[in-house]
Amino acid sequence: MDDHSDDIRRPLSPRIEVYAGGGRKQWPDDLKAQIVADSLEPGAIVTDVARRHGCRPQQVHDWRRRARSGQLVLPAAAGALSFVPLVSESSPSVAAAPSGSPEAAVVTVELHGARVEVRGTPGLAVLSDVFVALRRTRSC
Question: Which NCBIfam families match (predicted)?
Answer without folding.
Answer: IS66_ISRel24_TnpA
